Amino acid sequence: MHQRLAHDLDDLPALLQATRDYATRVLAGLAERPVAPTPAAVEPAPLPVGGAGTAGALAEFERRWAPGLSGSAGPRYLGFVTGGATPAALAGDWLTAAFDQNVSNRAGSTAAALEDETVSWLRDMFGLGPDHAGAFVSGATMSNLTGLAIGREWSGERLGVSVARQGLAALGEIPVLSGAAHSSVHKALSVLGMGRASLRPVRTLPGREAVDVAALADALAALDGRPAIVVANAGTVNTVDFDDLRAILALRERYPFWLHVDAAFGGFAALTPEHAHLVDGLGGADSVCVDLHKWLNVPYDSAVQFTRRRDLQVAVFQNTAAYLPAITGDPDHCHLTPENSRRLRALAAWFTLAAYGVDGHAEIVTRTVAAAHRLGERLSTLPGVELLSPVRLNVVCFAVPGDVATVLRAVADSGEAFLTPTVLHGRPALRAAFSNWRTAGADADRVVEAVRKALSTTCP
Questions:
Q1: Crossing angle, helix 310-317 and helix 140-158, to 10 degrees?
Q2: Do residues 429 and 388 make contact, with C-beta atoms less than 8 angstroms apart?
């Protein structure tokens, strides 16, 4: 054994303790860590030959790289709907690496059964039915891709074609209809060979990002019976707008379509009585995307996909080889998603659900929604600041006087907060997304003050 490896093996308890102590110091300072200022350039180092051992690597990381890492795990990183990692999720993620399970199959480990249990917990939490099966994937992009791939196979089934076996050329174009599809849907359609141009935008309601169901009905009628995929939104990224899922489901009495619901973070509305009506009808979807490293507050990368047609899912993603078990009624996970080998990313989700339950996570949703409303109310009192949409859930979308990029940079360089730019109805805007388990009303106040100071220096 290499001498560095042998030494680290002998010293493993102390090395893990040192890493634990360092991580504890980092987490303890999150509230005051600069959230996302422009990092200083780091001079590249040459490839190590002999290596410095774990202690040396930790020291080099702390010196060279850690100072430039963002405070994205903290309470005022409000970009991209990014959660943090609850204490239980962090423990689960550490143990994921320690046990280092490959969840591609069910042989020789209970890891796959643990994932199944976690998926069933999530299914119940989001109000889906027992006919919805699921699996873990890396994020919303992969969850959307998986759901759309199954929808593509369903379209072929309607026309007597197996796309998985015969290829997309045997089927031709598959119309995909949506009011305000997330960018990951466009990416998924490109990867799946359906093409970004297969997405046909449908008119949204005036001043909204929710689809006009009457316009959707017209678009479906124009297909003259050809099967389609409808991508509905349970929470758009700019304004957290929700499509009327019940009204969309009613259209299936007249038109054939696969309903995929992108509920990446809006699905968590199901956890609170005040907002559960927003996802009414989610259980009728054919496939559903939920991103767990958002509001469930587990570490990247973690999401789940659900579908009511696991048979078609297996048809698309099956991976057969002599060294793999045969496909059964309880298929291995390598037959369910694009990945074969896959880490036990379900363990962090299992830990946080086992630790805090539905009630604990509902409290996170309630508290962060309250912080978003607080931010919206206080921003609207600043001169020249305009809310571009009601604060429906956890995102505040607002316009500022002057140049958006300049204000955005000033806020980031203050170290107080990180926001993201967007464009809503043709207007440049800023977007603050609340989903971190640490965030409270006081953090919203600090963000308001950071925006006020940024405006005072950029728009005097």
A1: 100
A2: yes
**pLDDT > 80? residue 68:** yes
Q: How confident is the model at residue 10 (pLDDT cuts 50, 70, 90)?
A: very high
* CATH 3.90.1150.170 is right for the domain spanning 28-42+57-86+357-460: yes
Which residues does residue 204 pair with via DSSP β-bridges, in sequence order? Answer: 211
Which among 418, 407, 386 has a CA at the least distance from the CA of 459?
407
Among 429, 426, 355, 365, residue whose Cα is nearest residue 397: 429
Mode of pairing for the β-strands spanning 257-262 and 287-291: parallel
User: Which range among 170-174, 217-221, 341-345, 436-440 shows the weakest confidence by mean pLDDT?
Assistant: 170-174
Instruction: Residue 367: count other Cβ atoms within 10 Å of its Cβ.
Output: 16
- Prediction pTM value: 0.96
Contact 414, 347 (CB under 8 A): no
Q: Encoding tokens for residue 81?
A: 């709907």
User: What's phi and psi for 86, nearest 5 deg?
Assistant: -60, 160
Is the separation of the CB atoms in 336 and 304 below 8 Å? no
Contact 103, 276 (CB under 8 A): no
Q: Where are the beta strands (DSSP E) in 45-165?
A: 133-137
Q: How far apart are CA 357 and CA 350, in angstroms?
A: 10
C-alpha angle 263-267-272 in degrees, rounded to nearest 5? 165
Domain 101-342, second-level architecture: 3-Layer(aba) Sandwich (3.40)
The residue among 20, 69, 79, 19 whose CA lies nearest residue 40 is 69
The mean pLDDT value for 380-392 works out to 96
First to last CA, the chain: 65
Outline where DSSP puts E strands in 51-187.
Answer: 133-137, 176-178
CA distance 240 to 233: 9
Give residue 75's pLDDT: 96
Which amino acid, one-letter code, is at 459?
A: C
- What's the number of CA atoms in the CB half-sphere (13 Å) around residue 19? 14
Pairwise CA distance, residues 394 & 220, whole Å: 32
* Distance, CA of 256 to CA of 224 (rounded, Å): 10
Domain locations in the chain? 28-42+57-86+357-460, 101-342
What H or E segment, with its residue span, contains residue 69?
none
296-335 per-position pLDDT tens digit: 999 999 999 999 999 999 999 999 888 887 888 889 999 9
Cβ neighbours for 233, distance < 8 A, ≥ 6 positions apart: 178, 179, 180, 181, 182, 209, 210, 211, 241, 242, 243, 261, 262, 266
How do residues 95-150 score in pLDDT, each as one tens digit?
Answer: 999 999 999 989 899 999 999 999 999 999 999 999 999 999 999 999 999 999 99
